[in-house]
Design goal:
The chain is an alpha/beta fold. It contains 21 helices and 13 strands. It has three domains: 202 residues, Spore Coat Polysaccharide Biosynthesis Protein SpsA, Chain A; 124 residues, Tetratricopeptide repeat domain (Serine Threonine Protein Phosphatase 5, Tetratricopeptide repeat), CATH 1.25.40; 62 residues.
Amino acid sequence: MVSNGANAGGRVRPGPDGRTSAWMSTPEGQRISLCMIVRDEASMLARCLDSALPWVDEVVVVDTGSVDDTVSIAKARGARIGHFRWCDDFAAARNASVDLATGDWILYLDADEAITPVSGPRLRQLVSEGRSPEGRARAYTLLVRSETAHGTTEDMQPRLWEHVPGVRFRGAIHESIEASPEVALTVVSSTSVVVEHLGYRPEVMESRRKLQRNSTMLAAAIEADPDDSYLRYKAAQHALTDGDYASAVQESEAALRISASGSASRGPLGPSNVADTFRTLIAAHLALGDASRAVSAGDRGVQACPDHAPLRTQHGLALLAGREPARALEAFREARARREAPLTGAVDRASVGWRALYGMGEAYLELGRATDARTALAQALIDVPGNPVVTRALAIAEERAGDLQAAYDRLDAAVRQHPVDVELRRALAGLLRRADEAAEAVRVLAPLLDVDPVSADVYDDLALALDASGEPADAENARQIAQRLREGVVMGDGVDGEGDQ
């Protein structure tokens, strides 16, 4: 990164004014100001600044009230430091950072982000291209790659733009840049510059109590401006993450209604936001157990956004839940057919990759096409080796295709790798029982009785295995325990039910 005061991009750490030594040698019109707002980011900030310092000409860091070493870390790297009294308004803070910048271009990053090593030269290339052929100022949407609890998502976000008057942030939360009417701005998408975002990792979210903070601010922003369709869309996503599925449905419908009404205060939702809102709506209905409404939401969504591949996958999941495997298969195929489409908005690559292939496999199984299911699921497993859900489905397909040994070998290896995975053990036990190895099925299920809580389904499976192994009394006892569990009766230890309360 930095050696003898110089770095990979030919720049050195900024001086007290925030400018690097490359400021004077950078051609006029191409100087980049990195603008950041921070608060208590000591654990993340150095990584972010070190990733960008080789490629920018000025660093501006506005602190909103840190009590840790954030400011000293920024000063040590020569950033120009600003201070902003926090007022629950992200746009106001970001605009304060932009006001301190003197470069020709604004690049904004958060402390939990970093540009990838190969992105720096590409960043310089973008600013060297100058204005559009029509003489309009440019703004670039860059590829932001986020790590989440469910995998990696990719999102195109406006992060680099020419520093001209009239381009400002708007929105107390989930802020975005907007150009005033007198500014002609050409927005260009570039996937050549990648921003890696770690802030959605579960441990980071928890350590910062980010969800609670954002939810509080979002509620206040919506109360102040209930006709902001973008805020309602974000509120639906928050509610889904929080497990408040009824609110997720309500906010999704409000976002779609306000956006279509023509009265949205921030303008209508963009096409990718509309598609994401329908995805949230489908997921919320599925979580509520309402497959019919999930299918209906999916039907509306694909009619409004026919080319959005991840939405097709979500629609397929709804159709599977609604017992429409033929339509589900077509939805997953449509998603796969669009997987090479250009990025727009937030995209979960897995939704058009292994998730769509997994959905195809499940649909094929429902349609009785085990060989086709096996092919699709094997392809999905290449993308996610060892994934328990895909492994289990593939084993089912192998058994139904008549390859019992392959199914057994796969499930046996998976159980060894994931010894407390309930569904894998249930699948292996079921296969053994159907292969007249009932005693072995009982042995496979036994460890699950020590997992708290034990589901009624496990005791149902145990009853079948005990019956098949010639132990009817124990089988009946297992069935009674399953029934009591479904009735909410607290159970004691042991298959014989002693200690029931």
